[in-house]
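Running this now, will post back.
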Amino acid sequence: MVEIVTRLEVVNGTSSNVTVWLTLSTGGGIEVKELDKLHSGITPAPWGITAEPDNPFQGSFTLPANASVSAWPGYFNGNLAFGALPTSGCPSQQWPQGINIFEFNLNTGGDESIDISCINGVNALLTVSMEGGGVWTVTGSQTATSFQNFPLGQNSNVVGVYPANCPGCTVAGPTPQACPGGSPVPVESPSASSICQLDRTQNGGTVTVTFTGFAST
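Update: finished.
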């Protein structure tokens, strides 16, 4: 019997190279450097990840302009960030409006989920499309085949996207914290309903995350 798995594809939709950071859940068992071993000789090209010296579950790679990579291991749970290592919600000199991530929980055997989290701000504009496999739903009824995030201040009531400093989707933050040189990124209005995460109960098909550029600062 052929195992049905969900493929994750990452696409650079711009004319410039971009650094991509991958952070995997330690509970998944797979380390970032193992992705290329799983799918050597396939097209698109291997990820070519350099693991962090102190964290084998986190690493970065350069995704060339107009190129893509993909993988379909078993249980695959983690997040992707573009241009910078994910942060805890404090702005930096390079990213004064914070950093957003794409979160994924795939090949779980019955409870997959995906979203774009702008909880810690927005630096990258992402479009996510889903093809094949089970139907992705929002709050159990509304369905979706694609979603995207927007610049800071425009992510409230957007399907598949957690607004800035709204860790509960419908609940505004922020979680109090001390940030060097200032405060956490601004709070966007929470969404009116729980539409920030997409779920499904059947594996298969492809989830494609396309980087379309950096948000203006």
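The mean pLDDT is 89. More later if anyone needs it.
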